[in-house]
Write a structure and sequence with these properties.
19% of the residues lie in helices and 44% in strands. With 94 residues, the chain is α+β, with helices and mostly antiparallel strands. Strand 5 (75-81) and strand 6 (85-90) form a beta hairpin.
């Protein structure tokens, strides 16, 4: 899973800084081999930093990060793997 072509929606390109996009792909790359095809990232601003809660359901997974980012955002992001390609999209684009 997630070892194929990667795509971004217009919403991701418009709303998420490039370094945040790369960080989210990196989080997926660090997952154990058994991965849910549907990854969720809840992004919040906390004390001027980017708070990231990464989770999935099958298998259950949850990890949190705090990173320094020039322009932190409040968004919910999905990354979906359909075996042919992986797509990162804003929840509202689903």
């Amino acid at each position: 899973m997630f070892q194929n072509k990667r795509f971004l929606t217009r919403g991701i390109q418009a709303e998420l800084p490039m370094e945040l996009q790369l960080f989210l792909w990196h989080c997926i790359d660090q997952l154990p081999e058994e991965r849910d095809y549907f990854q969720v990232f809840k992004l919040d601003v906390s004390n001027g930093k980017q708070h990231i809660h990464h989770f999935s359901e099958q298998p259950e997974y949850s990890k949190e990060y705090m990173i320094d980012l020039a322009n932190p955002v409040n968004q919910k992001v999905y990354v979906i793997d359909d075996n042919d390609h992986s797509t990162m999209l804003l929840a509202e684009e689903y």
